[in-house]
Write a structure and sequence with these properties.
With about 100 residues, this protein is mainly β. It contains one helix and six strands. A six-stranded antiparallel barrel has the order 1-2-3-6-5-4. Strand 2 and strand 3 form a beta hairpin.
Length: about 100
């Protein structure tokens, strides 16, 4: 996690799953280390440039196994880590992430 941790408004939980990142037709598989209703943080990656918009697709762990698809923006990029902020997360997906955070907290 980066220096921006103190600035985060949403509660984050540690996770261990992969997120497909489509950056203008280039597909990357990123390891998510934490998740909130506002975004995710990837580790062990070569970060994309700040401000770049990408399309995400991932399956939430747990009983629902819900697939989430949304746009995101790269908001942090340091070392081998990268943070994304969700842009158009559907209300139902936001609720699923909130439920996951509640279960893991």
């Amino acid at each position: 996690m980066g220096a921006d941790d103190d600035k985060r408004k949403e509660r984050r939980i540690p996770v261990d799953f992969w997120i497909d990142v489509d950056a203008d037709g280039e597909l990357y598989f990123q390891h998510a280390a934490n998740l909130s209703v506002g975004g995710a943080y990837f580790t062990h990656t070569f970060p994309l440039e700040l401000g770049r918009r990408v399309q995400l697709k991932f399956t939430l762990p747990g009983p629902e196994q819900a697939v989430v698809e949304c746009k995101a923006e790269i908001v942090t990029a340091e070392g081998l880590g990268m943070g994304v902020q969700f842009i158009d997360l559907a209300p139902a997906d936001r609720a699923r992430i909130e439920n996951l955070i509640h279960r893991k907290a």
